[in-house]
Amino acid sequence: MKTYLGEPLKLLDEADIEQNGEKVKLPHFFPNHTWVIKSDTGSKPAAQTTILQGSLTGVKGSWYELDRSTTVTSEIRHVANKAVKFIRARLHVISGGGSPVPTVSIWWLPAIK
């Protein structure tokens, strides 16, 4: 498990299969979030769904969807008023594409009002 130390965090690194990213413990409850979805090297997938998840406790079964993106390109998204102590990303769907295989990386940082 990572701990947030003030720099943007990479939650998923060049994922090409459905998976949860590593959970990150935040130093306090963050209510606002900015996350960046980057379609990395490879061909464009036919379908892609990425999810930003948050938790109050970080234990299995306690993760909830904060935001969802279905873009097949790169995107910056913002989430407001959803305070959580733990954060992770999930590559929920990735399909199609040619060679090389499409991959996705996701970064997170707190949004400052």
Largest beta-sheet characterization: 6 strands, mixed
What is the count of structural domains? 1
> Helix amount, in percent?
under 10%
Which structural class should the secondary elements be placed in?
A: mainly beta
Quickly name the level 1 CATH class: Mainly Beta
Radius of gyration: 14 Å
The CATH architecture would be Sandwich
* Percent of residues in beta strands: over 45%
Instruction: Encode the helix/strand succession as letters.
Output: EEEEEEEEEE
Report the count of strand segments: 10
| Low-pLDDT runs | none
> How far apart are the first and last residues' alpha carbons, in Å?
27 Å
Looking at the structure, the CATH topology is: Jelly Rolls
Provide mean pLDDT, rounded: 85
Account of the 3D structure:
This protein has one domain (2-110): Jelly Rolls (Sandwich), CATH 2.60.120. It has no helices and ten strands. The chain has strands at 2-3, 9-15, 19-20, 24-30, 33-39, 47-55, 64-69, 75-79, 84-95, 104-110. The protein starts with a strand and ends with a strand. The mean pLDDT is 85.
Write the layout of secondary structure elements.
Elements (H helix, E strand, L loop, with lengths): L1 E2 L5 E7 L3 E2 L3 E7 L2 E7 L7 E9 L8 E6 L5 E5 L4 E12 L8 E7 L3
Parallel strand pairs: 1-4
Antiparallel strand pairs: 2-10, 3-9, 4-9, 5-8, 5-10, 6-7, 6-9
